[in-house]
Give the backbone structure.
Amino acid sequence: MDSTSYSVTSKELCLFLSRYAVFLLGCGATCIRLEKNVRRMAHAFGKDVELTIMPRHVHMTVYGKDKNEMFTSIDTVLHTAISFDINTRLSELSWEVADRKIGFFEAKERFESIISSRSGNRWVVLLLVSLANASFCRLFGGDWVAMLMVGIATLAGFYLKQQLLRRGFDARVTVFFCAFLSSVLGATCALYGWGTTPDIAIGTSVLYLVPGIPFLNSFSDMIYSHYICAFSRFVDALILTGCLSVGLCCGMLLMNIGMF
Amino acid sequence: MNLPMFTWSCVVALIMVFMLFKVVLFVWAKSVENRLFELGNEYDEFYVPGDSLEDED
């Protein structure tokens, strides 16, 4: 069967778009991107779509132009790791559908291959995150010793984060432990009197745990009037920041480092 | 030993033990994969295709 000339039913399209939407939202897309991508694909198949995006569910109705045939589905948002790579590839998929380069079945196949593809090498990610955080330390005025200690603290903390998340630990507990570990290791300069900027080393050793993407996404959702999602993401980010702060404070208290 | 030094030492010791454990595990897994020395019988060494198999003897 020619995939591009196949007349897709509202049910088929709704089930596909629903799965697409929960994956896209789960991997860190904003609500406006989700809306645009889903509408773009629905229009390419000659259908219209109405969707309600809630923090944990996506409620979607797909219907034909004459509204004779309708299908509604509710799907739960998947809690996958935030991935800009998958985010980008899913958006590209929506453009390929919109440009009529691929048909419905090929789009489904492509979608399955995207969501089942492995994310980047975790060792490379670990190394790059450590280097990035050490660079942050430099940006904040840290010396080379501080940078080295921040790099090591980040390496250990991020490795712990990867391991705990892989084993299904709660994200808040994970952030707390990682912040504690990184702050204790970041305090090495202060403990042994190495370098001239030990305070910067401690302060920047936990920066990799700041939930930047949820904060940015909540702001984007707020601009486009998705207030419920915006509030939910903001609270999530706030809780993670709280866990980070508690971990950092515990580390600093045990290392006898004054906070003010 | 004061509390900061004790805390720091505990954390670093835990990391060191974990790293050592990982290295030992890695080396052990590698050595099982490609054994440098292995005890076997001469049948393994002198077997020529066409010989009767051990369990047929």
